[in-house]
Structures are given as C-alpha cells and as structure tokens.
Write a structure and sequence with these properties.
Elements lengths: L2 H7 L5 E6 L2 E6 L27 H13 L4 H169 L16 H6 L6 E5 L8 E6 L7 E7 L10 H6 L1 E2 L5 E2 L2 H8 L4 E8 L5 E11 L8 E8 L10 E3 L16 H5 L11 E2 L18 E2 H4 L7 E8 L3
Antiparallel strand pairs: 1-2, 3-4, 4-5, 5-7, 5-14, 6-7, 8-9, 8-14, 9-10, 10-11, 12-13
Length: 471
C-alpha cells in the first residue's frame, strides 16, 4: 500500500441517514482533505449535511479526488456501488415523493370534490330560499299595490264625504239661523199655552167639584126615587106577598129572575123582587129590560164612584151598595141564581170619550163558596176586543183577605184592589178604584178591561148582568 493510499484511509467516518417513507439507508463516506490528495495531507471533518441529503458539490469533489488518486480495486468497487446506490436512492426518493404528491393530490381532489358537492348543495338551498323570498316579495308587492289602490279609493271617498259634510253643515247652519227666530216664537207660544192650560185645569177642577156635588145630589134623588118605586112595587105586589089574602095564590108571581119578570109583561128597567133558589125572602135586583132584548138581571153596576168597592170576602159574598145605583149583588146570590139553569153573561163598558163596548158569553156558571166562587165561561163575542179579557177556565174569586189567584208570589187583590176573578193579575178588573176623567190614565189599579182600552186605562162605567141562555 503506498503513502497516498494510507492518507486516503484516514478519513473521518460519519453517519449519513437518508429516509423516505418506510425505508431508511446508512452510508459510510470518506472525509477528504481540502487539498485534493497529496502525501502528508491534513485530515479535516465536515459539518453534518443539511436535511440528510448529498449536495452536488460534494459529489463532484469526491469524484475528482478518486480520479486523481490511484485507487485499488476495492475503492473503485465502492465508488461504483456508491454511485449506483446514490442514483437508486435519488430515483427512489423522487418516486416516493411523486407517489406522495400524487396521493396528496388525490386526497386534495377528493376533498375538493366533496367540498364542491357541499357547496353545490348549499348553493341549491340558497337558490331555493332566494326564490321563495323573491316570490314572497312579489306577493307582498302585489298586496301592497292592492292596499295602495284601496287606500286611494278610501281617501277619495273620505274627501267626497268631507265635501258633502261641509255642504250639509252649511245647510244646517243656515237652517239653524232661520229657525232660531221661529223657535223663540214657539217658546213664547208654549208659555202662553201653558198659562192657558193651567187656567183651564183650575176651571176643570172647579167643575169636577161642582160635578161631585151634583152627583151626590143626584144620588140622593135616585135613592128617593128608588124608595118611591119600591113603595109602588110593594103596594102592587102586596096581595102576592100575603098568602092568606082572598083569591091570591102564594106562588103566582114569585119571579126567579128578571127574564121571568119580562115574560110576565114588565118591560120597564128598574127595581124588582125575585126569589132565588130556596130562599123564602125576596131579593131586590135591578132589571135591565132594554139592552139586547132585555130580561137581564144586573149583579154589578158602576158609573160615578159613589160606592167603595174595596171590600173583604164577607161583603163580596153577601153583597153591598145601592141596587138602584152602584152595587154588587153578592157572590152567594149570583151562585144560587146561575144554578137555576143555563145562563149567559153580558158585560157593558163605557170610556170617558163616550165610546161603548160589550163582551157577551153564551155560557156562564159559578161554583159555590167552597170552590172559591170559580167562574166558567164559553162562547165569547162582542166589541170589547177580539178575545176575552176575563179568564174563562175556572178562576177563583179573590179579595184582599182571601187570596185565590194564580200568582205564586203576589196577591192581585192587594195590588190591583177590589174583589175579582184574578188569574195571574190578568187582563181585567171591573171592581178596581174609580178614577174621574183626567186622572184615569196610567192607573193599573183602576177599572180596566185590557182588550178594550188597554191595561192602564180606568173606565167611566160598567155593568155586569145575566139572563137565561134560552131567553
């Protein structure tokens, strides 16, 4: 071995590691001196290569040094192997890098395709949402246009109405100015009329007082006349009232009602004595021989308010008042009278304006006191309304001390006064309080017949009477 060969073997060994992927390689390379290969050359150590790769400059220097020195066969073999391995390593590294780049590129392409697909989905959603928003905006625009048109129409209508209102206001102001003077004149005329009315009312009140005095005087005269007529009738019927008088049988002129009197030839209205039922004493009654053919036995009569009809059960049972004037014959006498056969009922009514009306029932019957003197009616006709104001289905008689009405929580005789066949306070009460003219309006407790003058008009006169149905 020569001297320069020895210097070549004095190299500094260094471990160089080249790694890529799953493979790693280790090379032992000689550390050359800086002079290029002479005897007694100084050995120098290089610094570690950067990133584990050979640089092109060091390879050139190594080739130059090996060519200038006389190498033995092993050196040449090592040199050739080293070159082949370096070239293979470089080719393998390039191949690995290329595969890695391809793999990275493939991954990037796959990721890019996925991102592109997602972006397409998002873009489609955005487009759909944008389309819906555009459609909604279009609908809103159409609605807005429609509302604007309606608003314009309403505005024009309001303007038209304002103009019309202005015209009307001007007309009203003109009429107010025209009628203001007329109103003042009317007020003055009203005050004058009020003074005249007050004067007339005072005169009417004075006339009413005079009328009451005249009525009382007339009542006294009527009573005197009744007493005279009674005396005359007593004198005429004296032979009939004494059974032991010669040639005069006891029952030859014992009339049972006014129809019987009429049939006997007496056709003048007035007082008569009749025998009712099993009574041995005669009953004095007023007979109407003129109305609707006559023969009527009167059991209720009112025309001047001289008799108080605010009585109890006992007085309505036995009767009260003046037979020739205002009176109530009595429920017991009426019951016995109607029990003699089939009777009809007639009610005569007259208001304060001179109008008269009547209500007639073909069948009239009355029960006894135990059955509360219930009244039953059939066959209504007349001019005092299209239907009956008196209940026809068997209503009991009621007074303030004997309540038999059909009102569950009230007493009609106390509220409406008098004694009557109250149903549930009903449409009629001919035994209410007597009110004179001018005070007879809006009186619920007066003398009323609903279907003739209404529920709050108090009548001037009434008369109730019965006669046989076959008269």
């Amino acid at each position: 071995m020569t001297a320069f060969s020895v210097s070549w073997w004095l190299f500094v060994l260094r471990l160089h590691r080249l790694q890529h992927g799953q493979c790693s390689y280790t090379f032992i390379l000689p550390e050359l001196d800086g002079g290029g290969g002479s005897h007694g050359a100084v050995v120098q150590r290089d610094s570690p290569p950067a990133d584990g790769e050979w640089s092109a400059e060091k390879l050139k220097r190594l080739e130059s040094t090996m060519e200038n020195n006389t190498l033995w066969p092993l050196e040449n073999s090592i040199q050739r192997n080293t070159r082949r391995e370096a070239a293979g390593l470089q080719s393998h590294a390039v191949h690995n890098q290329t595969a890695t780049m391809l793999e990275i590129g493939t991954n990037l392409l796959t990721h890019t395709a996925e991102q592109t697909r997602k972006l397409n989905v998002v873009e489609a959603k955005v487009l759909n949402h944008t389309s819906r928003i555009e459609i909604q905006l279009l609908e809103n625009s159409l609605s807005t246009n429609k509302l604007e048109k309606e608003l314009l129409l309403q505005t024009s209508e309001i303007d038209r109405l304002r103009d019309k209102n202005s015209v009307l206001e001007s007309k009203v102001r003109m009429l107010e100015s025209q009628q203001k003077g007329e109103l003042e004149d009317m007020k003055e005329e009203k005050n004058r009329l009020q003074s005249v009315v007050s004067t007339q009312m005072e005169a009417i009140e004075s006339l009413e007082k005079q009328l009451k005095v005249a009525s009382s005087n007339n009542t006294a005269l009527q009573r005197q006349q009744a007493q005279l007529l009674e005396s005359v009738h007593t004198l005429i019927s004296m032979p009939l009232l004494h059974p032991f008088a010669a040639g005069s049988p006891r029952w030859s002129h014992m009339w049972k009602d006014c129809a019987d009197v009429y049939r006997s030839g007496y056709s003048t209205s007035g007082l008569y004595h009749i025998y009712i039922g099993n009574r041995t004493e005669p009953v004095q009654v007023y007979c109407d021989m003129e109305t609707s053919g006559g023969g009527w036995t009167v059991f209720q009569r009112r025309f001047n308010g001289s008799v108080d009809f605010q009585r109890g059960w006992g007085e309505y049972r036995t009767g009260f008042g003046d037979v020739f004037g205002e009176h109530w014959l009595g429920n017991e006498a009426l019951y016995q009278l109607s029990s003699q056969g089939q009777y009809s009922l007639r009610v005569e009514l007259r208001d304060w304006e001179g109008n008269s009306a009547y209500a007639q029932y073909d069948r009239f019957s009355l029960t006894g006191e135990r059955q509360q003197y219930r009244v039953y009616l059939r066959g209504y006709s007349g001019t005092a309304g299209r239907q009956s104001s008196l209940n026809t289905l068997g209503t009991g008689f009621s007074t303030r001390d004997h309540d038999n009405d059909n009102c569950d929580h009230c007493k009609c005789a106390l509220m409406l006064t008098g004694g009557w066949w109250f149903d549930a306070c009903g449409f009629s009460n001919l035994n209410g309080i007597y009110y004179n003219v001018g005070h007879n309006i809006r009186k619920l407790n007066g003398i009323k017949w609903h279907h003739f003058r209404g529920p709050s008009y108090s009548l001037r006169s009434t008369m109730m009477m019965v006669r046989p149905y076959d008269f």
